[in-house]
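Table 4 source record.
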Amino acid sequence: MRFQLSELDPKSDALSEFVTCQVTRFGEPSQPIYRFFYPIFGGEPEAQKQEALTNLMQLHREWAREDPDSVFLQIRDRDRDNQLVAGVYSKVHRQKPHVYELGLDSWLEAAIAMGVTIYRRHGLLRQKWRPRMQPLRYWPMWRPPHGKIELGNTSPPWGELSTNRRFLGRL
């Protein structure tokens, strides 16, 4: 098998390679929301870029140390000297984090347009708005308590549900 998926130990030197790969991938195409974690926009001196990279590695290590549900995964290409080609930081909860019985709604932000489509497939709704923090672009997504959308009964925090036929067909 050409690609190998494995867990990455955030205490190891491999975290530096992981974060460097992450910075490169979020830079092309540009993911403006990532600039909250890596505030480099281009043209900064090398020392400033290195400081931002060091701070980002430290932030990842803090996340891993403070949250036992943190998991770093890496994908390496065996045909290219075991080069790191992708990675993900996620949480693997030992208990279900969203307990529907509590009747809580859920919020998240889609940082890219494709995320909106994916989150809609999982029952989240998007507020129609245009972000004012240009060039940052993101879409707030919401799922009602118990994850159920009932036309006429479900009222999102921003007002009425869309009655667009394309929207209704996705419910």
